[in-house]
Amino acid sequence: MWECYAKKVPYFLDLSIPDMLKNLLKELNKRRTYSLIDLGCGDGRFLYALYKQGLLKNATRVVGVDISEERIRRLKKLCPFAEGIVADVTDLSQIPDNSFDVAISNQVIEHVPDDSKMLKEIRKILKPNGLLYISTVIKKWYGFWIYWKNGFKLDPTHVREYMSEEEFLNLLENNGFMVKEFKTSPIRYPIMDLILRGLIKLNIIKPDPAFYQKYKLISKLKKLKLKVIGYKSIEVVAEVKK
Questions:
Q1: Is residue 73 part of a domain?
Q2: Would 218 be classed as within a structural domain?
Q3: pTM of the model
């Protein structure tokens, strides 16, 4: 399923980085070197943007993990500075414990069958006082989007969508993390992304993560966004509990 999804649904590249993650890495870059792992890295969009913006300048090791071999292949092509590992984020047994200073996971935890197990695995591979940047979606009871799977979903591959900030923050606290800061914001989806994915589904164009880099004029239309009713994103920076 994941390989089929990876081939049909690329993550379009752009250089946008959430301010919370940007500020976290800026502070780290001022103080020390660090190792970083991106869990559920997809095609490498986040790592590519971090590298291009100079936010990995003090990173001594950068690793991307994804369940899809196709996405890891794209990661290695896009980000030759990064190692790629094919693995399920709920089973990171091939990665030694206490290996990384920083883990990031952007919009991944809502896809996995066992979110507590994923957090326990992340805690194991982080060093003492290691840092986690993680984001996901919060859905109000009236949340509405174009996908249906036992109710409206923001993404057809979502296993769950959290109902409140408290639910997600408690999940982190109950699995070995201390929340340092968090924020929520409305979700706005680029209309052009929807159009492109529709054209890919109809086999009119081929999946290409670098589409916007190749067609600069079309990329300007990416700024047109549609607010998703009843949904918001939550970003959290947390630290491994002592």
A1: yes
A2: no
A3: 0.88
Angle (CA) 143 149 151, round 5°: 35
Is residue 238 within 8 A of residue 180, CB to CB? The reply is yes
pLDDT for 156 beyond 70: yes
99-128 residue pLDDT tens: 999 999 999 999 999 999 999 999 999 999
In single-letter form, the type of residue at position 81 comes to F
| Domain assignment of residue 104, given as a range | 2-187+233-240
Query: What is the torsion angle, in degrees rounded to the nearest 10, for the CA atoms of residue 32, residue 35, residue 40 and residue 43?
Result: 90
* Nearest CA among 56, 59, 47 for reference residue 15: 47
Residue 178 lies in a domain: yes
What dihedral do alpha carbons 46, 66, 78, 218 form, nearest 10°?
-60
Q: Which residue has the higher pLDDT, 100 or 225?
A: 100
Tokens of 212: 């916007």
Instruction: Give the separation between CA 156 and CA 240, rounded to whole angstroms.
Output: 31
- Asked if residue 220 belongs to a domain, the reply is no
Tell me how far apart the terminal alpha carbons of the chain are, to the nearest angstrom.
Answer: 38
3-class DSSP assignment, residue 147: strand
- Rounded Cα distance, 153 and 171, in Å: 21
Give me the CATH number covering residue 40.
3.40.50.150
